[in-house]
Automatic annotation (TrEMBL):
Name of this protein: Cytochrome c oxidase subunit 2A
Alphabetized UniProt keyword annotations: Membrane, Transmembrane, Transmembrane helix
UniProt-listed InterPro entries: Cyt_c_oxidase_su2a
TM segment ranges: 24-45
Any Pfam family hit: CoxIIa
Provenance organism: Neobacillus sedimentimangrovi
Amino acid sequence: MAKTELKTNQKTQVEDRSSLKGTLASVFLLGLFIIVSWVSVYYLFVDRF
């Protein structure tokens, strides 16, 4: 049987130059929008009683 040889000397380089600052900002803005919506609906509910 033939032996299969694995080359372990190869290094895989991954270039990660993407910045996640925009993603973080949009997640914070979406969370703020959801919190403001819930609080406004809550105060609207409380104001009616």
